[in-house]
UniProtKB/TrEMBL annotation:
Domain of life: Bacteria
Any Pfam family hit: FAD-oxidase_C
Residue ranges that the Swiss-Prot or TrEMBL entry lists as coiled coil: none
Keyword entries, A-Z: FAD, Flavoprotein, Oxidoreductase
Keyword Thylakoid: no
Official protein name in the record: 2-hydroxy-acid oxidase
Cofactor: FAD
Species in which this protein is naturally found: Gilliamella apicola
InterPro entries, alphabetized: FAD-bd_oxidored_4_C, FAD-bd_PCMH, FAD-bd_PCMH-like_sf, FAD-bd_PCMH_sub2, FAD-linked_Oxase-like_C, FAD-linked_OxidoTrans_Type4, Oxid_FAD_bind_N, Vanillyl_alc_oxidase_C-sub2
UniProt-recorded Gene Ontology molecular function terms: FAD binding; oxidoreductase activity
FAD-binding PCMH-type domain segment(s): 32-209
Length: 452
């Protein structure tokens, strides 16, 4: 039987229990902490495979993590071994002839995007945490603002290298654009939150980088008016991003970022990004949109600086809240025609409960992000308030035909609401798949699939 030091020969890449940093015992929220016996930093797929075999031989559970930005408890260990893939961050190949890039899964999203854009190429998935790893993005099928036009992470994964629960290395997918050769195994791993295998390498699809971007803001008197125009916008064009935010929410971002949001007299906004091959194409899209919307207040960012300021305000909303008080993030998706209904309900619930909530999100795909503010409540009050509000919000989401997660995943935080939303037959099938892939239940066994 191999010793751990036979697999990871550098002693500084093995951290024992008493020395594991607190940052590796939690997730991005840092509100709950677990425990583990060993933390290891592999650099190669072979090392990961050997570590998995070692874990099986020593009856150790495995929690896989990248940058630790997860928000639903998926990276909070429940004993055993933490495998941190952050050192597996190499760009292996850029193949311009097939528009693909092959990378180790520990590379940060921001580093991948910067690399390919210097080559005049584009990796469209753009979730809010640019410091997340690509492997983490794949494991949660991350989305982001550009999903309305370009889709989500799943749409750009062409091939995966995965270490299975027994240490076998599986290579699935290819650089071929079309593939109807048997079952699409790669899609089982995308969004599986590390429960079926450990993704160590991936080949991703790229596209040509758009030459021109434009940011446009349309102001409304109410959020209901803003949401009512989503259908008109999507029937007119396919925006790169389509976001909604109310004035009172945007003010949080203004105070935090120091930038003034345009159209301050409006009560609600739709923020639109357009892209294209040339400026004329962008102008034509915008003119057609404004003609279809009729009389409305709008602002066009004339410079890159203005556009960056607008997106900085939008992107800083969560950090703006966290600078003032602890917050609990909700990631819910509803049909786009029910966004206004859900937002209206959050205001009713806020009035009834006395707990402040800020709602904003991706209007183009119905992904609503909601910050629930702690505002000085002690632990007991906070726990009780969250329980009541979560129950109410997820029940309303279900009534509106929505689902408990659009892009954050289920993890440990949403097991109850996942079980309420997904049919028993579906959950049983997921359990059977987990059992087939991981019979000893060693991979991320704290995550929802083992608790169905």
């Amino acid at each position: 039987m191999k010793k751990l030091t036979d697999i990871i020969v550098d002693s500084d890449r093995i951290i024992t229990k008493d020395h594991i940093p607190q940052s590796h015992l939690t997730d991005g929220l840092k509100s709950h902490y677990g425990q583990a016996e060993i933390l290891v930093y592999p650099k190669t797929t072979d090392e990961v495979a050997q570590l998995v075999k070692y874990a099986n031989q020593n009856n150790l559970k495995i929690t896989t993590r990248g940058a630790g930005t997860n928000l639903v408890g998926s990276t909070i260990p429940n004993g055993g071994m933490i495998i941190d893939l952050s050192l597996m961050n190499t760009i292996i190949e850029l193949d311009k002839s097939t528009f693909t890039v092959t990378v180790q899964s520990g590379i940060l999203l921001q580093d991948l995007q910067q690399f390919v854009e210097k080559q005049n190429l584009f990796y469209p998935p753009d979730p809010g945490a640019k410091n997340a790893t690509v492997g983490g993005n794949i494991s949660t099928n991350a989305g982001g603002m550009r999903a309305v036009k370009y889709g989500v992470t799943r749409d750009y994964v062409q091939a995966l290298e995965v270490v299975m629960a027994d240490g076998t290395v599986l290579n699935i997918g290819s650089k071929n654009i079309k593939d109807n050769t048997g079952l699409s195994l790669k899609h089982l791993f995308i969004g599986s939150e590390g429960t079926l295998g450990i993704i160590t390498q991936c080949t991703l699809k790229l596209i040509a980088k758009p030459s021109v971007f434009e940011t446009l803001i349309i102001g409304f008197n109410t959020i209901e008016q803003a949401v009512a125009n989503i259908t008109t916008i999507l029937q007119t064009l396919t925006p790169t991003a389509l976001e909604f935010v109310e004035r009172q929410v945007a003010q949080w971002g203004e105070r935090y970022s120091g930038f003034q949001f345009p159209l301050p007299d409006s009560k609600a906004y739709l923020i639109i990004m357009l892209d294209g091959a040339n400026k004329q194409h962008i102008v034509q899209q915008r003119q057609q949109l404004l003609a279809n919307l009729g009389d409305c207040n709008y602002f066009i960012a004339e410079t890159i600086e203005q556009a960056n300021q607008i997106w900085t305000v939008r992107g800083s909303l969560v950090r703006a809240v966290e600078a003032v008080t602890e917050q609990d993030p909700i990631d819910i998706v509803v049909p786009i025609n029910r966004i206004a209904d859900f937002i209206h309900y959050t205001k009713q619930l806020q009035s009834q409960s006395g707990v402040r909530m800020l709602a904003f999100g991706h209007a183009g795909d119905g992904n609503i992000h909601l910050c629930i503010l702690r505002d000085g409540r002690d632990d007991k009050q906070w726990s009780e308030a969250l329980e009541q509000i979560h129950n109410a919000l997820y029940q309303k989401c279900h009534e509106l035909g929505g689902l408990p997660s659009a892009e954050h995943g289920i993890g440990t935080a949403k097991v109850k609401y996942f079980n309420n939303a997904i049919a028993q037959e579906n959950r049983q099938l997921m359990q059977q798949i987990k059992q087939q892939f991981d019979p000893n239940n060693i991979l991320n066994n704290q995550v929802y699939i083992t608790q169905l």
